Amino acid sequence: MKNNQQSVLNLLGLARRAKQIQSGEGSVLKSIQTGKAQFVFLAKDAGSATIKKFTDKCSFYQVSLCESFTKQQLSQAIGQSRTVICVTQSGFARKFEELLTMN
């Protein structure tokens, strides 16, 4: 599983370089509400209010959510200190789901 997690983080860095992500609470929230967000990463060590807000929004707008990584891991993958990140391109989103569901 560690290998898949590292692959996900590497792909997240690639998605950032391809300008296919939004990061930061405000930007991600707006992307979810407007239907642009395809997949959301939320740090498992985020604050309880943040976790509740994004869990509820992703559930309501039917956006896939991943809470498998820490804030440090996500921040290192994209090179910015962030708690929540969304992927806006469906191809990347499909690959993230595939990698995270593999055993």
From TrEMBL:
Pfam families: Ribosomal_L7Ae
Domain Ribosomal protein eL8/eL30/eS12/Gadd45: start-end pairs: 8-89
Coiled-coil residue spans: none
Name this polypeptide is given: Ribosomal L7Ae/L30e/S12e/Gadd45 family protein
